[in-house]
Amino acid sequence: MTNQLNEEDTDVDVFEQPESVKVQVADPSQAWVSLPASTMLTVEEADQLLCWRDASIITIVGERNGGKTTLVTEIYGRFLHGAFANTYFCHSLTLMGFERKSFHSRAESGRSYPDTDRTSAQDGLRFFHLALSDETDLLRHDLLISERAGEVYREIRDRPDRAVDMIEICKAATIAFIVDGERVAAPRKRAEVFASVRNIVRVVANSGNIAAHAQIQLVVTKFDLLDGVDKTEARDALATFEQSIESMLSGKFNIEVFHTAARALHPHSEPAQGLALLLRTWLKAKPPEDIRNLSIPELTDEFDKLLLRRIVQ
Length: 313
Known about the structure:
With about 325 residues, the protein is an alpha/beta fold. The chain contains 11 helices and 7 strands.
């Protein structure tokens, strides 16, 4: 068939398009979006968070098996049941990190008793992230809680110079020194744990690495193991030790003492003892930093010099 222009009409099959004009089918594997790992934050990832959130760094310092990780995971576990310490759970970038550390404390793990996944020295410095909202004003508070193996803190007793390089100490809004209540309850281990904590506190305090506004805390874990008449001597020894630490830091830092029992290790004790009060202190507003008399680095870039001239004018 031809039209008036003597052009031949051809039937076009829309289902038989040339290869060049066929719609490319997307690769199904490319349709997936990679989600954040939600594990522990590295130092670099924590710095990225600090660029857009005014988070408080909480540094937990203590030896191995002292209850550092359990203290933090049990605070997280309280929010699985609802509000805690007059705050609501708001957000976390490390949910998988919390869950991995908490798994061995749950019945689904199949363990006969609760435990906490240990932190390896090879992991280096990591951070838990926890964002909470106050019940009254719903203001958000972000916490970055340090996680480092206890072996590293034990080493600074013999190598005090290492405390100077610990970034979690110099940037901390709160430094919590852990005292293992289980070792305090054991007469043969009591003097050892007191000496170890005293040396760690002394090294960190003398490092010159603590910010002026940082609050210093002495946190006794597993305090429920010190209950009972038969533990009177242990409690008296602990009170004497706490006074000695306060005297040692007198004139340098103010120190607060907290007695906690994250898990119910004693048959007649309740879990999460003292955690609410401790958490509230971590959520205190940070005092504004004094920006007066700051030393200005040498400016070599012309744009920096121009900006400085505008500020001075």
